[in-house]
Amino acid sequence: MLKFFFTLGIICIVISAIFNGALVDGQQQRGNFFSETDEHRKFIMGIATYSGSLGIVFLLIAALIYFF
């Protein structure tokens, strides 16, 4: 059960980083920013925020299982 929640948490954090644009360099990030509409940017940031929050919750559950 611990491995399941830990793996799910890491996957959600990686998805959040991908959608947030944290894994690209500055030129690529500028290009992505100026080629997106405001609606698309809000949608992408919503996915990043939701998956990041879910990842943190899964990692906290894994920590609770580990310590208790």
TrEMBL record:
Q: Which UniProt keywords apply?
A: Membrane, Transmembrane, Transmembrane helix
Recorded superkingdom: Bacteria
Q: Which InterPro entries match?
A: DUF5316
From the record, give the transmembrane residue ranges: 6-23, 43-67
- Which named protein is this? Protein-export membrane protein SecG
